[in-house]
Design brief:
Distance between the termini of chain B: 55 Å
Strand content of chain B: 15-25%
CATH architecture of chain B: 3-Layer(aba) Sandwich
Number of helices of chain A: 10
Number of strands of chain B: 8
Order of helices and strands of chain B: HEHEHEHHEEEHEHEH
Shape of chain A: globular
Radius of gyration of chain B: 16 Å
Strand order of the largest sheet of chain A: 2-1-3-4-6-5
CATH class of chain B: Alpha Beta
CATH topology of chain B: Rossmann fold
Oligomer: heterodimer
Distance between the termini of chain A: 34 Å
CATH superfamily of chain B: Thiamin diphosphate (ThDP)-binding fold, Pyr/PP domains
Number of domains of chain B: 1
Helix content of chain A: 40-55%
Shape of chain B: globular
Radius of gyration of chain A: 15 Å
Helix content of chain B: 25-40%
Order of helices and strands of chain A: HEHEHEHHEHHEHEHH
Strand order of the largest sheet of chain B: 2-1-3-4-8-7
Largest sheet of chain B: 6 strands, parallel
Structural class of chain B: alpha/beta
Chain lengths: ~180, ~200
């Protein structure tokens, strides 16, 4: 099984049915897999904070959800996390494909990537960087269960070590 | 294109919110957007299916969308200010494509950012929010002509299709009450109202 199949399987095991996303190259197998599977309700959002809002409403109405996004998209979320997810204690599951590191050609991506972990840390949001298929099932399954048990969000950062990164981005690297 | 906003009656947000709340007969969920939209919802009399936003400006419609997707047999109403919806117009396109028939969006349009000092919003100028919604793909977008028209629009049935966006031109009155500022309590009570609380015996 590939990392994307593993991840979708764990979402299923934990009744996380609503898959919201803003498209990204690295996320393609996740988005394709979710939209092809009737178990999931897939929602393409125009912005990441919109997806957070939808997942918040769905959770309160009894449907568990995940927001999939890219590093730069996470940078749009500070207010939605600080004034909705955290104070209302919403177990929002976030899956972030990591750009800006280990072979990035775009200076904007490499800079915005530096805001991600400090933002998560500033808000005290639990986050795990997934680097390999061997350890990710334990990390993801237990952390999703912890999120819903403790009414707290969780972020999974998909390292290029796990996903291979964005081939288009690497192709643009200068020698 | 003409802006229909100019031709409709100026109404009271507080009065329309009361009319809306009094018309609810099926435990509909109501999401009150940040600021005056949720102050007036709170002021109309708390009900268990009310959710009050105390931040995250612009996310009333996405939150309502999530509720509507999770509980497709429950009517869901988002109350949002014009300044707030301008902050996240993209959600109208998302909602138009998903077509949740149980979702109604009400935009309170006074053309200003009332709560921050009455600065003019784009809606007070060239922008017609109903035309924006229709352009996004929400075919059932209408300006509220008067109180009776509001009652008629809000009484729609799921069979008529959806989603629906109603825009009411309102005056510049601020909300008269402040919502209780306890987000976890608000969330907990809302979930109890929607039958999704895990409180069990604690919910008595």
């Amino acid at each position: 099984m590939t990392w994307s199949d593993i991840l979708l399987g764990i979402l299923k095991d934990n009744d996380v049915r609503l898959v919201t996303y803003v498209p990204d190259n690295v996320l393609t197998p996740l988005i394709k897999g979710a939209t092809a599977d009737n178990y999931f309700m897939s929602v393409g959002a125009t912005r990441e904070d919109e997806a957070i809002g939808a997942v918040t409403g769905a959770y309160m109405a009894g449907l568990r959800g995940v927001v999939m996004m890219q590093t730069s998209g996470f940078a749009l979320l500070a207010n939605a996390l600080a004034s909705l997810v955290m104070p209302y204690q919403i177990p929002a599951v976030m899956v972030i494909s990591e750009r800006g590191t280990l072979g990035e050609f775009n200076i904007g991506q490499s800079l915005v990537a530096r805001t991600m972990r400090p933002t998560l840390d500033a808000l005290g949001i639990v986050h795990h960087t997934l680097t390999d298929e061997a350890t990710m099932p334990f990390i993801v399954d237990n952390s999703i269960k912890q999120a819903f048990s403790t009414q707290a969000p969780v972020a999974f950062i998909l390292s290029p070590l796990l996903t291979g990164g964005n081939p288009a981005a690497r192709a643009n690297l200068r020698r | 294109m003409t802006n229909e906003r100019a031709s409709v009656k100026t109404l009271s947000r507080a009065a329309l919110t009361k009319r809306l709340v009094q018309s609810l007969k099926h435990d509909e969920a109501v999401i009150g957007g940040i600021g005056n939209a949720n102050f007036d919802l709170f002021g109309a009399g708390h009900r268990p299916q009310n959710f009050y936003m105390l931040g995250s400006m612009g996310l009333a419609c996405p939150i309502a969308l999530g509720v509507a997707l999770a509980q497709p047999e429950r009517g869901v109403i988002a109350l949002e200010g014009d300044g707030s919806i301008l902050m996240g117009l993209g959600c109208l396109a998302t909602i138009a494509n998903l077509k949740p028939r149980n979702l109604t969006i009400v935009i309170w349009d006074n053309g200003i950012y009332q709560i921050t000092g009455k600065q003019m919003a784009a809606t007070g100028g060239a922008t017609d929010i109903v035309a924006v919604a229709r352009g996004a793909g929400i075919a059932a977008g209408e300006w509220v002509r008067d109180e009776a028209h509001f009652d008629k629009l809000i009484a729609r049935r799921f069979e008529d299709g959806g989603p629906v966006l109603l825009a009411a031109k309102i005056d510049d009155e601020p909300g008269k009450v402040q919502t209780v500022r306890d987000p976890s309590l608000i969330r907990n009570r809302f979930m109890k109202g929607l039958g999704t609380s895990r409180g069990g015996v604690l919910d008595v």
